């Protein structure tokens, strides 16, 4: 049986991770790398040369014109996802679409319609949802009892260079197109997506309400510090408390500064979704993780269920849409922030942010409900 032919887009950015993974699977005989697509890399011969023997194109249409393309990996800027994924599916290819899948609910609905028209598979790159811990929570294998609430917390730090790495970074829109970048929709999107999946949210209809309380320290359009509260009929409340303005050493902890806490009627557990480690009162358990590209290949070959099918990310799209439609993030005054470092490595730390995030998660509260001196009342 001929190995599926794969095209990877966006190799100058996060697509490099997909390229390395595809090379691993190619060496194992699971796929063939048919072509690479990246206009910036294609415009630079020295850069193009380092990506190996596969032909490099500046446009996906040229790669698809090679014929017999089975899978397209879309790892380009968010505002290009919908058009590229639709183009790939209409050309007969299945898609692995980086997270978030698209920046608007309208594009999400259109992409689902395209999938229905073409019958193609679409997997979304929320890697944490490949963890076997998700199934353990859903089956109550950890004996927590019925889930009463879920809280996602993220204490990360990003320097000024993070916001200067691309034109779309820190933007709510770019050249008239929604981008919806920000702490909740990009760097710590996995925290929210993981919490939603554990709590039983999947399709857009599973979410009744998303409350947004967004702030920023950096000179950006988007948010870098945010709380969210998601509710749905018959489902536990999900709270997210996230920042990119924490002391950097917090991300050096065993949980890497990102945790999903699941509170059940009988017990609670903390899931470090970046390391697949679950901590309960009885100890620590480490779970395995399925590679999402391998899972997509297995789906094509045997019909194995996709771990992150497009439709099942609808609940997360409700969060993205709420962030898109929300008011601009409230600036946090300089009196509540300490800057460290110099030049592009300079990074902010909000005074007491670790305590604020712990309180929000513990109470299921938004920052504005905690009486914080920098949060709007």
Secondary-structure-based class equals: alpha/beta
Radius of gyration: 21 Å
- Say how many strands there are: 19
Poorly predicted runs of 5 or more residues: none
Largest sheet: 9 strands, mixed
Summarize the amount of helix as a percent range: 25-40%
> On the 0-100 scale, what is the average pLDDT?
95
Beta-strand residue fraction: 15-25%
Distance between the termini: 62 Å
| Oligomeric composition of the shown chains | single chain
Question: What coarse outline follows from CA principal-axis ratios?
Answer: globular
Order of strands in the sheet with most strands: 16-15-14-13-7-12-11-10-17
Please report the number of helical segments: 12
Please characterize this protein's 3D structure.
The protein has twelve helices and 19 strands. The protein is α/β, with parallel strands linked by helices. The strands form four sheets. A nine-stranded mixed sheet has the order 16-15-14-13-7-12-11-10-17, with helices on both faces. A six-stranded parallel sheet has the order 3-2-1-4-5-6, with helices on both faces. A hairpin with a 4-residue loop joins strand 14 (268-272) and strand 15 (277-280). Helix 5 runs parallel beside helix 6 and helix 7 (132-138) runs parallel beside helix 9.
Topology at a glance:
Elements: E1 5-9, H1 15-27, E2 32-37, H2 39-42, H3 45-49, E3 56-57, H4 60-64, E4 71-74, H5 81-90, E5 94-97, H6 105-118, E6 122-124, H7 132-138, E7 147-155, H8 160-163, E8 173-174, E9 177-178, H9 189-199, E10 209-216, E11 225-232, E12 235-243, E13 258-264, E14 268-272, E15 277-280, E16 283-286, H10 292-302, H11 314-325, E17 330-331, E18 337-340, E19 347-350, H12 353-363
Parallel strand pairs: 1-2, 1-4, 2-3, 4-5, 5-6, 7-12, 10-17
Antiparallel strand pairs: 7-13, 8-9, 10-11, 11-12, 13-14, 14-15, 15-16, 18-19
Helix pairs in contact: 5-6, 7-9
């Amino acid at each position: 049986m001929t190995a599926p032919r794969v095209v990877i887009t966006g190799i100058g950015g996060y697509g490099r991770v997909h390229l390395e993974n595809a090379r691993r699977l190619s060496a194992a005989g699971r796929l063939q790398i048919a072509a690479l697509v990246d206009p910036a890399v294609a415009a630079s011969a020295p850069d193009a040369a380092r990506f190996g023997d596969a032909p490099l194109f500046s446009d996906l249409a040229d790669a698809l014109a090679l014929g017999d393309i089975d899978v397209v990996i879309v790892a380009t800027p968010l505002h290009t996802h919908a058009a590229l994924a639709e183009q790939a599916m209409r050309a007969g290819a299945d898609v692995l679409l980086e997270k978030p899948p698209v920046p608007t609910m309208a594009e999400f609905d259109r992409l689902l319609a395209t999938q229905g028209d073409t019958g193609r598979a679409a997997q979304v790159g929320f890697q944490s949802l490949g963890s076997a811990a998700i199934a353990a929570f859903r089956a109550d294998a950890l004996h927590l009892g019925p889930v009463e609430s879920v809280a996602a917390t993220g204490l990360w730090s990003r320097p000024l260079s993070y916001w200067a790495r691309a034109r779309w970074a820190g933007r709510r829109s770019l050249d008239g197109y929604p981008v919806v970048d920000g702490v909740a929709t990009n760097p710590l999107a996995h925290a929210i997506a993981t919490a939603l999946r554990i709590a039983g949210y999947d399709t857009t209809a599973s979410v009744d309400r998303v409350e947004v309380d967004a702030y920023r320290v950096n000179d950006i359009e988007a948010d870098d510090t945010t709380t969210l509260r998601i509710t749905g009929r018959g489902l536990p409340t999900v709270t997210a408390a996230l920042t990119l303005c924490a002391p950097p050493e917090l991300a050096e902890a065993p949980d890497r500064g990102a945790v999903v806490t699941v509170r059940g009627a009988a017990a609670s557990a903390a899931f470090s979704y970046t390391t697949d480690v679950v901590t309960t009162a009885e100890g620590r358990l480490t779970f395995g993780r399925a590679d999402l590209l391998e899972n997509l290949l297995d789906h094509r070959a045997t019909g194995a269920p996709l771990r992150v099918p497009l439709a099942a990310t609808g609940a997360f799209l409700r969060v993205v849409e709420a962030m898109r439609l929300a008011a601009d993030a409230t600036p946090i005054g300089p009196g509540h922030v300490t800057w460290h470092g110099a030049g592009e490595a300079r990074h902010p730390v909000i005074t007491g942010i670790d305590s604020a995030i712990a309180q929000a998660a513990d109470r299921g509260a938004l920052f504005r409900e905690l009486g914080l001196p920098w949060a709007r009342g």
